Amino acid sequence: MTTGEDLPLIRKIRKIFENSKFDFVTERVHFWIDGDDEELTEVDVCVIYENHMYLIECKSANLKSRNNELRRKKDLISAIKSKSITKISNDSIPKLLLPRLDEIDHVHLCYYLGNDSVYKNNKTTLESKGILVWNNDAVDYFETVSQTLGSLTRKEIIYREFNIKDEDSKTQGIPAIKFNQGDLILHLFTLDAETLLKIAYVSRRGSKRDESYQRIINSDRLDSITRFITESKNLIMANPVILAFDPDVYGKVKYNNSGEMAFTNTACSAWIIDGQHRIFAFRDIDLGSRRYRKYNIRIPIVALEKSNPEIQSETFVNINYYQKKIESLLIYDLAANFKYPRNELVWPSLLTMNLNENGILKGLIKTKELEKKKPKERKKPLQSTNFVRTILDELLGYDSKSDEYDGPLYSLCKFSKNSRVTTTQNKKAFEIHSSLLQSFFDSVMSFTKTTGKDWRDIAEERGFLTSSAIKAFLLILVAILRIEEKKNIDFKEILKPLGKIDFTAGDYATYRAGYPAINGYTKDLLKLINSHTGKNYEYIPINQIRKKLDKA
Fold first, then answer.
1. DSSP state letters, 53-68
2. CB distance 246 to 270 below 8 Å
3. Considering only CA atoms, which of 237, 242, 342, 338 is closest in space to residue 295?
4. Do strands 41-49 and 260-264 pair parallel, antiparallel, or not at all (unpaired)?
5. Separate counts of helices (H) and strands (E) for the chain
6. How far is CA 126 from CA 119, 383, 446, 499, 502, in A?
């Protein structure tokens, strides 16, 4: 019997199966069988996909009369298979018509036990009877992933969770290279994206494997890679995806006399150790279309043979911890050389490069990985990262979900991301953006100039050239632009309070560094500036602005 405490669990389960695009999903279903006027049993969530039915029970507390309940579920499953159900209803529809009920050949039972102690006390018994058992970890995982991957989550639920056999799998020989690293046996080969989407799945901490290791899918990162695939004129995906073959499917991998590897395209038969976002970025792309057929997209794969979970987890750690990530500096340097600003890093990288080549900050920003040391180079040069990310996120207002811009600097003069940087429109936008940034920083640093002294020494002594101060200055520029909305702004007048600021002394020194310093500097400086100008400059993160607009 369903209780009020079970309802939130039921809604979660229903949402998972709806997000995963199963054919039919409903809740609180009552069944009757031939020759019985009384209701046979109630099921919390009923799901149909092809000729399979999935019955999910959701329990927030103890399983009362467990043996009796399991007997009734067993009778119900027999009745469904024998086509002896006479009536079905749910709480809102007295006579519910389940689609393809006469075609159902397989019925599967799952219990979602939302209480940890109940889960621990019943898991072993239920699994011994062939019943799938989910706990909160499993449901939270599928709730999150199904929102991002949609129907691909259905594949993992069917083949990994309910352990249903893939009847459409085929084995064929494919070109591959077998090699060893220590005790590990590995295979190098390529697959088309469609096959890779079928065989690969994301491991997790949940119902089946306590030692699994994969991160939750990041939808923004996924969308970014999808855009790279769809917008690239010269698509190259050279980095190999790393998989672990399921020993139950592949066993000892065999090669024929021609040196081809026996490959079986069984659904969910290879755990993704590294490369999940590259794989799932293809989820909504029509790979059969003319555009993608001409690329003949094949993704390089390195697959581990008969590796135990500990080895796979260790491999995951090695990849993500020991291998050094490419320096942002190199990425920004390369982005600044792109002919088109389609990639979001191009424009802010160009603006940062320009700040380092012109104006008061000339030569003070490290923009290249291999730069010759200048005679008067500062001990701690400013990093391009301090500028690029804040310019991109706040001044240009790049929204990774829409791949559009809505920041105050972009609104001042828009550039076209699909046109060359050298077009008339983009050259005009760049001139306005770069001149404004130079004018702003010239004004900021002018308050560190003293006759007979190098302004840079004063700026360093007063903390004007720290990463926290630079980011705070940029956020203050954001606040100013949101109100002024014009190209010619008297920054020197607005920023006069900076003449008395020393970030290394007084209350400013207590902020130390990082986010507390950036946030503290920004708020305190804006108070002084507002007091001086009589304006109401306010910095609000652009994500908060977007949320308010969405609600409105």
1. EEEEEEESS--TTHHH
2. yes
3. 237
4. unpaired
5. 22, 18
6. 10, 58, 74, 73, 67
Identify which of 238, 223, 227, 226 has the alpha carbon closest to the alpha carbon of residue 297: 238
Q: What count of other Cβ atoms lies within 10 Å of the Cβ of residue 427?
A: 13
Q: Which domains does the chain have, with CATH numbers?
A: 4-161 (3.40.1350.10), 171-322 (no CATH), 328-551 (no CATH)
Q: Do residues 31 and 43 touch, judged by C-beta distance below 8 A?
A: yes
* Residue 24, SS3 per DSSP: strand
CA distances to 334, 335, 342, 362 from 367, in Å: 10, 11, 20, 11
Specify burial of residue 469 (Cβ count, 10 A radius: 0-12, 13-18, 19+): buried
Provide the token pair at 290.
Answer: 């003319």
SS (H, E, C) 298-345: EEEEEEEECCCHHHHHHHHHHHHHHCCCCCHHHHHHHHCCCCCCCCCC
C-alpha span between 158 and 50 (Å, rounded): 11
Cα of 288 vs its chain's centroid, Å: 26
Each residue's pLDDT expressed in tens, for the chain with a length of 552 residues = 566 788 999 999 999 999 999 999 999 988 887 766 666 788 999 999 999 999 999 998 877 788 888 998 998 999 899 888 888 888 777 676 777 788 899 999 999 999 989 999 999 999 999 999 999 988 988 998 899 899 999 999 999 999 999 999 999 999 999 999 888 899 999 998 889 999 998 865 444 454 444 456 778 888 888 877 777 767 777 889 999 998 887 878 999 999 999 999 999 999 888 888 888 888 877 766 776 665 567 899 999 998 777 677 677 767 766 665 667 887 888 888 888 898 899 999 999 999 999 999 999 998 876 555 544 555 578 889 889 999 999 999 999 888 899 999 999 999 999 899 999 999 999 999 999 999 999 999 999 998 889 999 999 999 999 999 999 999 999 999 999 977 789 999 999 999 999 999 988 888 878 888 999 999 999 999 999 999 999 999 888 887 777 766
Q: How many residues does the chain have?
A: 552
Q: Taking a C-beta distance cutoff of 8 angstroms, is the pair 199, 170 a contact?
A: no
